[in-house]
Amino acid sequence: MSRRDRKGARAAAKGGPAKAGGTEMGGRPKTGRPVKGGSAKGGPAAERPVKSSSAKGGSAAARPVKSRSAKGGSAAARPWKSGPATGGPAAERPAAGGSVAPDALQASGERIEALEGEDLLAGKHPVLEALRSGRPLNKIWVASQAQRQAVQPILEAARERGVVVQVTDRRALDRLAPGVPHQGIVAQTAAAPYAELDELLDRAAQSGRPPLFVLLDEVEDPHNLGSVLRTAECAGASGVIVPKRRSAGLTAAVAKASAGAVEYIPVARVTNLAQTIGLLQSRGYWVAGADASAPQDVFEADLTGPLAIVIGSEGKGLSRLVREKCDFLVSVPMFGRIGSLNASVAAAVILYEAVRQRMAKGGAEDGHAPA
């Protein structure tokens, strides 16, 4: 026995600890002490607790998988992230071409529910053919998970037609059109066709009467829009102008609230209401904004000439830019404890004050207001 072997035997007989991480020369590895991060020379790693990075030659099968797998480890159990990892399963990855990005489209976090009584189109081909045929549409919803390549023809056709496209979650479309295989695309048809703004203005100029328009600034309640259409038609208005975004469209609910007036009063949709006000002013119109804080009483204002009345939204009233673009502001006097009127009621009061003034001026024909 060599001197080194005798020294190791004496240490083993006394029960003294061997050097950390080492073994006796020619003997078995010590098993009673915990093994540190580095394995004992020649010793197996089976009983060691496995850390986040595997030891050389060790198996990663029992390790919990982190976001980045160890060398040689499997990525099958990893949760899918927004960017696909190399070698990941193709079934869970977005398909080639990428998903629809909300750039230049209207994205919204609003909760979309089923539209009872509304005429909806679901699926790529029905919506695309409706756009190509010229069928009036209020809005198109596209699932954010939809393949950009698949919906690109619809996006281009909607842009040409000026139809609003809103990107939303696929589950929202499931609620909107329950039980319908929508393929990530749903469209809402309009209850009546929209008029072009230029045609509307030309028709009003050729009527031989002072034109009277109603502009709605972000009125989103369909019942308010329907009531305004009904009042405007009864008052002989030339038409109603609404913005394409953040506004109610000509839906079935609006048609019902209008009591059929949607079939007679022309409605135009514009991209920018402030720019439209500027266009009206360039054609000789006076633009009156309804504002509860305005010092001028509506019954004191002159409403007999070519006029556009602007009504603000239910909660906020006129937006800042639209208010600044108006030629003057008018208010409806309030004598009770409630500080404001419903948007459609305020529109009715101002419209019929314009009718009264025009009739008093001698422009009425057969009991109808000149508009």
Question: Would you spell out the secondary-structure blueprint of this structure?
Answer:
Elements: H1 3-14, E1 106-107, E2 120-122, H2 124-133, E3 137-143, H3 148-161, E4 164-168, H4 170-176, E5 185-189, H5 197-205, E6 212-216, H6 222-234, E7 239-243, H7 252-257, E8 267-270, H8 273-282, E9 286-290, E10 307-311, H9 320-325, E11 328-330, H10 343-360
Parallel strand pairs: 1-4, 3-4, 6-7, 6-10, 7-8, 9-10, 9-11
Antiparallel strand pairs: 2-5, 3-5
Helix pairs in contact: 2-3, 6-10
Query: Which class best fits the helix and strand makeup?
Result: alpha/beta
The topology string of helices and strands comes to HEEHEHEHEHEHEHEHEEHEH
Give the overall pLDDT as a whole number: 75
Total helical elements: 10
Question: Which labels suit this protein?
Answer:
371 residues; alpha/beta; 60s Ribosomal Protein L30, Chain: A; Alpha/beta knot; six-stranded parallel β-sheet; 28% helix
Q: What's this model, at a glance?
A:
With 371 residues, the chain is of the alpha/beta class.
